[in-house]
Design a protein that fits this description.
Blueprint: H1 4-8, E1 11-15, E2 26-29, E3 43-47, H2 56-69, E4 73-77, H3 88-97, E5 101-104, H4 110-144, H5 149-160, E6 164-168, E7 173-177, H6 190-195, E8 203-206, E9 211-217, E10 222-229, H7 236-258, H8 262-276, H9 281-289, E11 298-306, H10 316-329, E12 334-339, E13 342-349, H11 355-367, E14 372-376, H12 386-399, E15 412-413, H13 414-426, H14 430-450, H15 456-465, H16 470-476, H17 481-495, H18 502-517
Parallel strand pairs: 2-3, 3-4, 4-5, 14-15
Antiparallel strand pairs: 1-5, 6-7, 6-10, 8-9, 9-10, 11-13, 11-14, 12-13
């Protein structure tokens, strides 16, 4: 504690050092043995010990009461009751509870010390109030300006100085903004990690991941969560940022439902009707009235998804407007709607047209303006198959790589994804997840134990990605051939398997892809 009066008293921490980071709410000076009943959480006790119990059990009980009350610590002035070392029972009890116990080697005026600490506490509280006011003003301005999710999350990123993620109820990231010190990897294995994180109440901190997590939606209707990277326990200010951001996102969602997204809302209702009851006369009539022909047509479902973590995040409203303009320019009837930060698009083409080519041309116009992932389901000729095409487009989008690669097509289709596409279709099948866990558990355990010294999963991935050349596989990891061969030998020993056996390689390749798609990211 950097206070002049405190420093002059020659303080020495004799127990409970692990609790020194506890915030001090207020300070009290007393010699009463029942001080625990008078304190509140965060109170610091100043005492000379003259009124404390004489027996060992009494001293231990005194500390137990302070710990139960949530006291910030005990400061004891030597000279009146104890002239040298404090009693061992007092020290041991404080150490057991992690309650800081500080002795003052020089006589000091408790009134001056209490005043100095109190002034510092008040200054801190005023600072927190000013910060809270700034948070309030920031989000009030965003709300009045009807800011979209991108603007809201960018404000959170600035105020939190850390990574920010919005996920849906299925734990899929919808938006991501990296923190200033984020070296990458914050999203690695996200769905699997997120499923294991549960917080009580609306907002909570997960120490294992270093996440501040806030519920989006009501307790009965949760549509997602806001996650802010916070390696240390979050301050009240950061909690306020998270909760105000959640409220702003909810307000935007409400505005989206009740204001200028009438067309998208109507299109969502029509698309839902076509997937749920494609032969309904009412749905067919409404589609025709909306300029979306559904009789004697071919259909293709398309998903347009902003790339997570892109340098310039795509605004979904702008992307939707571009899709509408592109479809209009191609004279291609399309339903365009938003579902959980995805654009779902259904195009309607005459049977003689090449619907896949029309989707490709639509995609080219969109990609010229926005960094997004486009995925398409198979073209279908029956209204009853529309749901399958739309669902397939979403599964392909889930399986498509988030980082654009040199040879990637503009539009991802199931046929382009090969094995990855098949695994995407299997989705959340528990049997697939159990298979991946069984195949990779031993290697994952080894890598966790070894830390950064070796990465056998990376070596295995390089092997299956470069099946024709172990030299290229080693080069992809910047390893010498000898070092790479050594890692392969260790993998074979751990798995008790021959990596040259085609069946073994195929099995491990499938496990790696399944693990990646389920969010394990082979960690």
């Amino acid at each position: 504690m950097g206070l002049p009066t405190f420093r002059r008293a020659v303080p020495d921490v004799v127990a409970g050092r692990v609790g020194l980071d506890r915030p001090i709410r207020w300070v009290h000076a007393t010699e009463r043995a029942d001080a625990g009943s008078l304190l509140r959480a965060g109170d610091l006790l100043l005492t000379m010990g003259t009124g404390l119990p004489d027996d060992d059990d009494g001293l231990a009980s005194f500390v137990d009461a302070l710990a139960e009350a949530g006291a910030a610590g005990i400061v004891v002035e030597l000279g009146r009751r104890w002239s040298a070392d404090l009693p061992a029972p007092l020290v041991d009890a404080c150490e057991r509870h992690g309650l800081p116990l500080v002795v003052l080697g020089q006589e000091t005026r408790f009134a001056a010390l209490a005043q100095e600490i109190g002034e510092r506490v008040v200054d801190r509280q005023l600072t927190e109030l000013r910060e809270a006011q700034r948070v309030h003003e920031t989000f009030t301005e965003l709300s009045f300006g009807q800011a979209g999710p991108v603007e809201i999350l960018q404000a959170v990123q600035r105020m939190a100085a850390g990574p920010v993620v919005v996920e849906n109820a299925q734990h899929r990231p919808l938006d991501y903004f990296a923190g200033p010190d984020d070296a990458g990897g914050f999203l690695d294995g996200w769905p699997a990690r997120s499923r294991r994180v549960e917080v009580a109440g609306r907002t909570g901190w997960d120490a294992a991941n270093g996440w501040l997590v806030t519920r989006l939606g009501t307790a009965d209707q949760v549509w997602g969560r806001l996650v802010i990277g916070s390696p240390q326990p979050p301050s009240q200010r950061l909690v306020a940022v998270a909760e105000r951001a959640a409220a702003a996102l909810a307000l935007h969602r409400l505005h989206d439902r009740d204001r200028g997204t009438l067309m998208r809302r109507t299109h969502l209702e029509l698309l839902s009707g076509l997937t749920d009851d494609p032969d309904s006369d009412d749905v067919l009539r409404r589609c025709e009235m909306a300029g979306f022909p559904v009789r004697r047509r071919s259909f293709a479902g398309v998903v347009v998804r902003p790339r997570i973590g892109a340098a310039a995040p795509a605004d979904l409203d702008e992307v939707a407007a571009t899709v509408v303009r592109a479809a209009h320019g191609l004279r291609l009837p399309a339903l365009v709607c938003e579902v959980e930060r995805d654009l779902r698009v259904l195009v309607s083409a005459v049977p003689t047209a090449d619907a896949d080519d029309l989707v490709d041309r639509l995609a080219a116009r969109v990609l010229a303006q926005h960094d997004v992932v486009l995925a398409a389901g198979r073209v279908v000729g029956e209204r009853s198959a529309i749901a399958r095409s739309v669902t397939e487009a979403g599964q392909v989008a889930d399986a498509a790589p988030q980082v654009r690669r040199e040879h990637d097509p503009d539009v991802h289709r199931l046929a382009d994804l090969h094995l990855r596409g098949l695994l995407a279709l299997l989705g959340e099948d528990d049997r697939l997840r159990l298979f991946a866990d069984r195949e990779l558990a031993a290697l994952k355990g080894h890598d966790r134990a070894e830390g950064a010294r070796t990465d056998l999963l990376a070596a295995l991935r390089a092997l299956v990605m470069h099946p024709a050349s172990k030299t290229e596989a080693a080069a992809s990891l910047h390893l010498s051939r000898a070092a790479f061969y050594d890692r392969l030998a260790r993998i074979e020993k751990i798995l008790d398997a021959d990596l040259d056996d085609p069946d073994v390689r195929v099995s491990l390749h499938v496990a790696l892809l399944a693990d990646e798609l389920s969010g394990g990211a082979a960690k």
